[in-house]
Design goal:
single chain; about 300 residues; alpha/beta; Rossmann fold; UDP-galactose 4-epimerase, domain 1; 2 domains; 7-stranded parallel beta sheet; 3-stranded mixed beta sheet; globular; binds nicotinamide-adenine-dinucleotide
């Protein structure tokens, strides 16, 4: 298949590119290497055409005309919760207007399907756990709102124009190439600070727990979604929860380093617990996470060393 990956120079997008290439597909990338994002030109293999362009740019039409993609894997986004609260208009420009530019070009250039990187952020702080596809969505940040709205546009474009989609709601993704300079990505930050002897900050009591999924498992779901899961959204996680304290203990053991830990107040909007029921993804995508947390952390530490 010919596949266009937006955000394909970023942490997850570039791993998805690698997985598509390994499965024998033809891939092109659109990525502006946005200064707030984690993208790097070096993440894109030299054999892959990289269009350094903003997804809101009208020139995106030329990229679609040239590449003639059959599938678009949409990973380009503004994904900082903090930036989205500081500047909701910027967040909406990239995550809503950028998506609309991708969807308009997709329907005009006969794309069959869009695979969309959605997020656990669409749920906010739900009353019941684990979270599944039917859990009510009450996003607590502009970022969560724009990711949720994106799924509604996908549903609309499918009903109105027959453009297929699969939305993959990622839990907390970690692995090689994650930017340790961001505000999120606790694993990348902890590893970086442990390896460089910088202090570790734990917000609250560290008992807040999340569902950490290795990036290669997320990329595998993107491969499976090429031919499965049409017209549906999936909670993509491991189905297990790990606290920040547990993560820190594991990373101390794996790196063999001891960090200087300081505690900071709980961050606004930080939910105590969020983890996914992944049964729908397992059934409909014939997918399952294969990398244990311990193994994924070892691979991430090795890549950051
Ligand atoms: N990392 C996670 O845990 C996580 C969880 C849920 C959802 N997601 C979603 O997965 C996707 C990828 O996230 P990531 O963690 O790999 O981040 P990342 O910053 O590493 O990758 C995003 C890429 O998009 C590019 N980009 C940003 N704005 C752009 C624009 N306007 N035009 C063109 N390119 C642009 C950036 O340059 C970057 O390379 C995002 O859509 C994000 O919302 C990530």
């Amino acid at each position: 298949m010919r596949i266009l990956v937006t955000g394909g120079a970023g942490f997850i997008g570039s791993t998805v590119v690698d997985a598509y290439l390994a499965a024998g597909h033809e891939v092109a990338v659109v990525d502006s290497l946005w200064h707030h994002g984690g993208g790097k030109g070096a993440n894109v293999p030299s054999t892959v055409r990289h269009y350094e362009l903003d997804i809101t740019d009208p020139a995106l039409a030329q990229v679609f005309a040239e590449v003639q993609p059959q599938v678009v894997s949409h990973h380009a986004a503004q994904h900082s919760v903090k930036l989205s609260t500081d500047d909701p208009a910027l967040d909406a420009r990239v995550n809503v207007l950028g998506l609309l530019n991708v969807l308009e070009n997709s329907r005009r250039h006969a794309v069959r399907k869009v695979i969309y990187a959605s997020s656990a952020a669409i749920y906010g702080a739900p009353a019941t756990q684990p979270i599944n596809e039917a859990t009510p969505q009450q996003p607590t940040s502009p970022y969560g709102i724009t990711k949720m709205v994106g799924e509604h546009y996908l549903r609309y474009y499918r009903a109105a124009f027959g453009l297929e989609y699969t939305a993959l709601r990622y839990a907390n993704v970690y692995g090689p190439r994650q930017n340790p300079g961001g505000e999120a990505g606790v694993i990348a930050i902890f590893i970086h600070n442990l390896l460089t002897g910088q202090p570790i900050t734990i917000h609250g009591d560290g008992e807040q727990a999340r569902d950490y999924i290795f990036v290669a498992d997320v990329a595998d779901a993107n491969v499976r979604a090429l031919t499965a899961g049409d017209g549906a959204s999936f909670c993509l996680g491991t189905g297990t929860r790990t606290s920040v304290n547990e993560l820190y203990a594991l990373l101390r053991r794996i790196t063999g380093r001891d960090g200087q830990v300081s505690h900071a107040p709980t961050r606004a909007g930080d939910v105590p617990l969020a983890y996914f029921d992944n049964r729908h993804a397992k059934e409909a995508l014939a997918w399952a996470p294969t990398v244990t947390l311990e193994e994924g952390l070892r691979r991430t530490v090795a890549a950051q060393s």
